[in-house]
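User: Can you predict the 3D structure of Cupin type-1 domain-containing protein? Sequence below.
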Amino acid sequence: SIAGNGVAGVVLPEKDEKVIGIRKGDAIALPFGAVTWWYNKEDTELIVLFLGDTSKGHKAGSFTDFYLTGTNGIFTGFSTEFVSRAWDVDESTVKALVGSQSGKGIVKLDGSIKLPEPKKEDRDRLVYNCEEAPLDVDIKNGGRVVVLNTKNLPLVAEIGLGADLVKLDGGAMCSPGFSCDSALQVTYIVSGSGRVQVVGVDGKRVLETTVKAGQLFIVPRFFVVSKICDPDGMSWFSIITTPE
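Assistant: Sure. Here are the predicted structure tokens for Cupin type-1 domain-containing protein:
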């Protein structure tokens, strides 16, 4: 979560539903096949950044979302007879359940609707708050790093991705570096701005640009990246294609 507070419902394959209170800085590991819902019950905006591996998606390069309800939900494609037998309810109930949810993706709930309340214990093993976690790197007048891996969130081993949150102080530099296990990086700029350079294995610079909050860039395998932030500082969140 980049901003705001909310609630998420998560059903992992062959597991009971977990209802999680989410707040700024939370990283949530979601494996393939997870069913989720996300709810903002506050007046302020809730912003959640979704990053993941889409190479095995139904359409490579795109997230594959299966909506259970709504105009493009999977149950709208089945006849009421099939759904009524699957859910063990009468056909009029099926029509009400399937047909009444006309929203697509994001819907505004009626004020009378109450969703499940989060449980503190449901955060265990699913959520790691990068804003509150112990620092893995802390350089005075330089910056701070929190690394997300199998040690603090074991579920990332199943997903095959790790992550880090980096915050640089004004004018600080993240020196040239690369992943020695051939991982690639997807980096989202959370706040601030700065300059970035990426160099390929043949020593040729392939990217030189200024980045700012809301922008995203990719560092291919074995490519070397370095960043220098502007006087106001810069922070970014990266996912890396290795859980370690």
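Helices lie at 80-87, 91-99, 156-159. The mean pLDDT is 90.
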